[in-house]
Write the structure tokens for this entry.
Amino acid sequence: MQQPKVLIIYTGGTIGMVNDPTSGTLTAFNFNHLYQQIPEIKRLNVQLETISFEKPVDSSEMNPTYWKQIAQIIFDHYESNNGFVILHGSDTMAYTASALSFMLQGLSKPVILTGSQLPIDEIRTDGRENVLTSIEIASAKNSDGSSKIQEVAIYFENNLFRGNRTTKISANAFEAFSSPNFPPLATAGIHIKYHSNTLIKANNFQLFTELDNRVALLKIFPGFNASVYQSLFDITKIKGIILETFGAGNAPTDRAFDDLIEKYIADGGIVLNITQCNSGSVEQGLYETSSFFQKVGVIGGGDMTTEAAVCKFMYALGNNTNQETVKKVLSQNISGELTN
Ligand code: ASP
């Protein structure tokens, strides 16, 4: 039987970094370092090809230009590979995974992001297991030859999560990610157990590279002063605003804030309401303190993570100009990011 082919895309992050003895900081190392550190990679029954960012980056540097680069690499190498592993810093991994889930729609092959909390050359590194298992998942097939995973996912510390459902929850723990509103796609123990009832099935692969980052994110807090944020509600500069609200989508009753929102929407702006809770969903109109949002056409973001909401907004604005169409795209489930 032919060996499955997996393309590894190395973007940077702790996993490929080493301690620089002179500066005492972590700096990116040549990608071949990974092969030296995990010689077992060569023992996997997989044909590997690697593409490395010319200058690997800390994931804090990630942005839509890099996302387009990664999506384009996958698109260009799609036919010749069975799966893809993206080595990426953990800090913004959930954003990149979310963005890719909207840019690469209808995948019939796995795109697995992974990284590590400790550099690969540390004795107790979590990187070794994360990389090896990710490659195994990226090459895993069903008995009919189709890929087990047909979507963008994050593998970290024994769990495979849907990429656009994932959020980074710890700066230090090996278990750095969680998927609070959606169960794991697979769990790695002695065997890798795939939870088939959670998996997306392939349909019609398409690449979308247009992203519009004229999006603002505003976290509401008690004592929130609307006038401080007035300049955000300017449709000539900002096309969409995400409100991170309390509980099921609530915010303080504040005439000045309501006026800003109402005028912004009338001017053609789009406002999306997501919860700042770790889990659960926005239900506009459930409480008096969210009924205004419902009345003026703020979109309820359901159970989307902040990461998914930001990236979906960029995707929706990048591919549509009409306010109503963007609103429709935001309300729909596109790549498994939203329960509706
Ligand atoms: N600062 C690093 C990054 O996100 C942390 C990590 O890789 O885990 O690139």
